[in-house]
Amino acid sequence: MVKEGGNLTFQKSAGGLVSGLSAYLGSLKDSSFTTSEYIWIGWPGITVEDKEKEKLELKALTDFHAYPVFLSEEAMENFYHGFCNKTIWPLFHYFPSFATYDDAYWNHYKHVNETFCNTVMKIIKPDDVVWIHDYHLMLLPKLLREKMPDVPIGFFLHIPFPAFEIFQLLPGKWRSEILQGLLGADLIGFHTFDYTQCFLRCVLRILGHEHDMGQIVADDHLAKADTFPMGIDFGRFYSAVRSPEVQAEKETLKKNLADFKVILSVDRLDYTKGIINRLQGYEIFLEKNQQWHRKVILVLIVVPSRIGVESYQQMKNKLDELVGKINGRFGSVDWTPILYQYRFLPFYPLVALYNVSDIALITPLRDGMNLIAKEYIASRINKTGVLILSEMAGASKELGEAVIINPNNREEISEALKMALEMPQEEQVKRNLVMQDRLERYNVVRWADDFINRL
Questions:
Q1: What are the residue numbers of the active site?
Q2: CA–CA gap between residue 21 and residue 401 (Å, rounded)
Q3: What global pTM score does this model have?
């Protein structure tokens, strides 16, 4: 929700989770054996004045099946920008030196989880199912369990769950309460088998609870930890390629990129994404493969993220400098090695870019899943194209036919680029057919369906 000219207006979130769950909820409408009644519960995106709250609640519920959780600016600063982004995010992505341990952040994290609990209690009915998402609300399952012991509660973590040696860096009280909070759910879902095992090991080492095939006897119920790799709305991406909007975008791109093999890099500005390593790998590739000069171009799309956070601004500055250095070193009047854009890309231009790119270079240093890798494969309707994917992304466990690399090794990135550019078309088609089949069968609707049915 945004405020424009004194009026509150609603905008759909651009995140993969929202679009994925929207596809699942849409599929329920076509089902003959289930009801599609649902309510989204979440923060509206801004601080709302008291006089506007009742009006907003009614409009959100009537128009969007949504119910707002109102939070102050101070709470959001300490909870979201503080504990979520400065403690949990770096720690769970294996950047412990970036993590901040602040009691004020932790207290606000607890407070916001309690606020969510109180909001849920206003509208929940005895026969409802509750599905809680992501690291912002890891205390919420237990809080709800204490108030509604018979309601089925599911929790899904969309980022990695770290190894015990990393998780134990949290202060003792915090790590125990987080694990106890998660165990308030009946079903706790993770993207990969490794994350599930890390969670179970932490529960054993910190709380002393053993498990039997992922099942844990919690205080008053049985909790189950299991693996559910999140898919994408495969059909949406595959069919969009033939839409007039994408075709128009493709024509424009082909005019500008027709003379080059296109390497695509799309990421949010974040230190976990490995963008600097990726550029350095590309620089080594250009050093060693002069035969590809003036024949290849890296399209680098960086989506603004957490603007105002100093560490992110420093990364942006380093990124700008490195792009300038590579373009200055290798470029010429008729060739710019890196086409760099710092902006958000809407759906149709993004699909067009996926479709015209010969290679997708996706090399996060650590990533829960990475749906961009799956979206690229889904958009390749002629079955060509090469996906270079980090082994540190959850998606690598499903997309083994991609060129899998260690994102910390710049030489490996360089070698993967050469291999991808030289890969015969028959080999590309062979690999992509297998991956597309897998992504089409286990799409986001199947993922959500599996979780809810298990719950």
A1: 158, 367
A2: 27
A3: 0.94
